[in-house]
């Protein structure tokens, strides 16, 4: 007599809204895709177009060639600069070689560049809150002469910073930081330098803010929060941190469903699921499909912010 299969345990999945691609990421990917359609392969891309392994691998399969520096690009093929932005020296070098290039820098990162230049023109020394070595930070610092920007990574950095001479100060932030952590750093800076002007508009972008607020809602009732995103994605890593601080019993960053460790799921009945701004929705669906092989799954969508922002593509791809 064949034994009846044991019933699968139930798990409820609450899906964050919004999640996944933001307008800047969507625009950057479209720029590479349109360039390949219009100019044929190969199209060279300086650095990863966005920080997601699956996105990069798919574009590589279409004919994109990812390089670290401009000198790896031939003179006769298009070059795309990543969504994170580049130092001013990079387009200057491209122009010196008469390269045809497309700038996929997110317009919200470009806004930070403009703010930094405005402060520098006004004679202010700039405090950039961000993570050392991140391409966005390298790009923002590279908008200005050496020594014009000081990087502040932590509250301790803010407390230890020494003003260069009597220069007035201003601050800017990387667009993908944790809102709460950044607020603490800004508070520490303003406690020492009350005159610090705030940016005209918040530097941390709308997509980062919305995804962090959504993951806070998930964390309130979650035994486990899974964040789909690559390890080098700053905004994805911040979502894990935000979930844990908001009360999730556990939170994990996964590149895709194959990275789920079964031991994480032991005793989990309420799971929150979200994705960083550079992770495609297909990977989220892959996680649901994987969980459905082990659990009786019910799905609830979080009633979060609905994003309608879009950014125009470069004229060279639409004319």
Can you give keywords for this protein?
single chain; 319 residues; alpha/beta; five-stranded parallel sheet; four-stranded parallel sheet; 10 helices; 12 strands; 36% helix
Q: How would you characterize this protein structure?
A:
The strands form 3 sheets. Strands 10-9-11-1-12 form a 5-stranded parallel β-sheet, sandwiched between helices. A 4-stranded parallel β-sheet has the order 3-2-4-5. It is built from 10 helices and 12 strands. It starts with 9 loop residues before the first strand and ends in an 18-residue tail after the last strand. With 319 residues, it is α/β, with parallel strands linked by helices. Helix 8 runs parallel beside helix 9. Helix content is 36%, strand content 17%. Strand 2, helix 2 (53-62) and strand 3 (64-67) form a beta-alpha-beta unit. The relative contact order is 0.19.
* Helix fraction bin: 25-40%
Distance between the termini: 71 Å
Spatial strand order of the main sheet: 10-9-11-1-12
Number of helices: 10
Largest β sheet strand count, sense and barrel closure = 5 strands, parallel
Low-confidence stretches at least 5 residues in length (pLDDT < 50)? none
Q: Overall mean pLDDT score?
A: 95
């Amino acid at each position: 007599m064949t034994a009846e299969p044991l019933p699968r345990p139930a798990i409820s999945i609450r899906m964050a809204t919004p999640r996944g691609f933001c307008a800047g990421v969507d625009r950057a990917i479209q720029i590479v895709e349109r360039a390949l359609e219009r100019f044929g392969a190969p199209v060279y891309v300086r650095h990863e177009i966005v920080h997601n392994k699956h996105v990069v691998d798919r574009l590589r399969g279409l004919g994109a060639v990812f390089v670290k520096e401009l000198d790896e690009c031939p003179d006769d093929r298009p070059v795309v600069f990543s969504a994170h932005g580049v130092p001013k020296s990079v387009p200057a070098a491209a122009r010196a070689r008469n390269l045809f290039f497309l700038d996929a820098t997110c317009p919200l990162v470009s806004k930070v560049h403009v703010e930094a230049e405005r402060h520098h023109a006004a004679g202010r020394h700039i405090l950039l809150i961000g993570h050392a070595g991140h391409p966005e930070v390298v790009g923002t610092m590279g908008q200005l002469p050496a020594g014009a920007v000081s990087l502040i990574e932590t509250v301790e950095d803010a407390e230890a910073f020494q003003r260069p001479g009597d220069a007035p100060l201003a601050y800017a932030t990387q667009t993908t930081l944790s809102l709460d952590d950044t607020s603490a750093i800004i508070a520490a800076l303003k406690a020492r330098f009350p005159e610090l002007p705030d940016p005209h508009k918040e530097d941390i972008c709308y997509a980062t803010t919305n995804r962090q607020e959504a993951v806070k809602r998930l964390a309130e009732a979650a035994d486990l929060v899974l964040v789909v995103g690559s390890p080098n994605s700053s905004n994805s890593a911040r979502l894990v941190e935000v979930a844990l601080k908001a009360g999730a019993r556990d939170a994990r960053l996964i590149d895709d469903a194959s990275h789920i460790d079964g031991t994480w799921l032991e005793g989990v009945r309420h799971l929150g699921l979200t994705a960083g701004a550079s992770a495609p929705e297909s990977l989220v669906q892959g996680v649901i499909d994987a969980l459905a092989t082990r659990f009786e799954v019910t799905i609830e969508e979080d009633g979060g912010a609905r994003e309608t922002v879009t950014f125009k593509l470069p004229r060279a791809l639409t004319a």
